[in-house]
């Protein structure tokens, strides 16, 4: 998922306390995917209620978000809209990977291979419409702003950051930079641990802030060249150049100046049009100004009705999460100053 350019970017470790009072736009699909892949049982299946409905996403949204609010972070969740036609090939490949993973998961279950069960169950994860709608509903009950992007959530979040409506974009992917975000927060978790991709291994991590302009100056390339670099590596909207990783792409950009010249040098002129379309999408993605960033009082009764009465959550734990959010809201209403929480 996303473009593989992380090796080129320097990051600054920060603490969650550094984000107190900051508005952080979360790539909602990215976050929910994390919950669905990590909050699972020993059989690799997501947590479910007594009726077999998945609850991993709800558990993650409730507990992680309430902890962020308790720390003074002001979260906003941005959801994807309609994917662009340019992404069709990538989505088809992801579908094939999930289907193959389902088959391998079943075989691992027959063998009783715990490591393989977890590996392939995570690779088989799909975010379905029910999961999305339930996540939106829970966030709304918690009083957290939900933004609907016309297309890519990271593009909308980056646009909001560029306007100054949010302070940071939070995502594990690097696409936000290609869409124009200047500062991205990574590894923003409650546990301080992150699962390694494709492995059932967790490592200790601290939140990181990645500053685009600082990295562009260090690499001595322009923002436009940075987009070209990403295109050469490969994105969700175009196939990269074979055997060209991030470091090689940087060398090529410095030698030739841009993606068109690089493609011509490799006899790949036929790909220029596709690269041009992908670049245009990154530079001018569908975004909207039709959104409101406003936090509201969390609805305790409806949170309990939804999570406890319908989805078998512990009322004590739901109440605890509500108290964290409500305490922040009450502080805001009692201290109406410019530097208040919301």
UniProtKB/TrEMBL annotation:
Keywords: DNA damage, DNA repair, DNA replication, Endonuclease, Exonuclease, Hydrolase, Magnesium, Metal-binding, Nuclease. Residues 334-342 are annotated as: Interaction with PCNA. Residues 1-98 are annotated as: N-domain. It comes from Methanimicrococcus blatticola. This is Flap endonuclease 1. SUPFAM superfamilies: 5' to 3' exonuclease, C-terminal subdomain, PIN domain-like. Mg(2+) 2 binds at residues 173, 175, 236. It comes from the Archaea. Residues 140-221 form the XPG-I domain. Its cofactor is Mg(2+). It is an enzyme of class 3 (hydrolase). GO terms for molecular function: 5'-3' exonuclease activity; 5'-flap endonuclease activity; DNA binding; magnesium ion binding. Interacts with PCNA. PCNA stimulates the nuclease activity without altering cleavage specificity. InterPro entries: 5-3_exonuclease (IPR002421), 5-3_exonuclease_C_sf (IPR036279), Flap_endonuc (IPR023426), Flap_endonuc_arc (IPR019973), HhH2 (IPR008918), PIN-like_dom_sf (IPR029060), XPG-I_dom (IPR006086), XPG/Rad2 (IPR006084). Mg(2+) 1 binds at residues 27, 80, 152, 154. Pfam families: XPG_I, XPG_N. SMART domains: 53EXOc, HhH2, XPGI, XPGN. Structure-specific nuclease with 5'-flap endonuclease and 5'-3' exonuclease activities involved in DNA replication and repair. During DNA replication, cleaves the 5'-overhanging flap structure that is generated by displacement synthesis when DNA polymerase encounters the 5'-end of a downstream Okazaki fragment. Binds the unpaired 3'-DNA end and kinks the DNA to facilitate 5' cleavage specificity. Cleaves one nucleotide into the double-stranded DNA from the junction in flap DNA, leaving a nick for ligation. Also involved in the base excision repair (BER) pathway. Its EC number is 3.1.-.-. Belongs to the XPG/RAD2 endonuclease family. FEN1 subfamily. The keyword Lipoprotein does not apply. Residues 1-101 form the XPG N-terminal domain. CDD domains: PIN_FEN1. GO terms for biological process: DNA repair; DNA replication, removal of RNA primer.
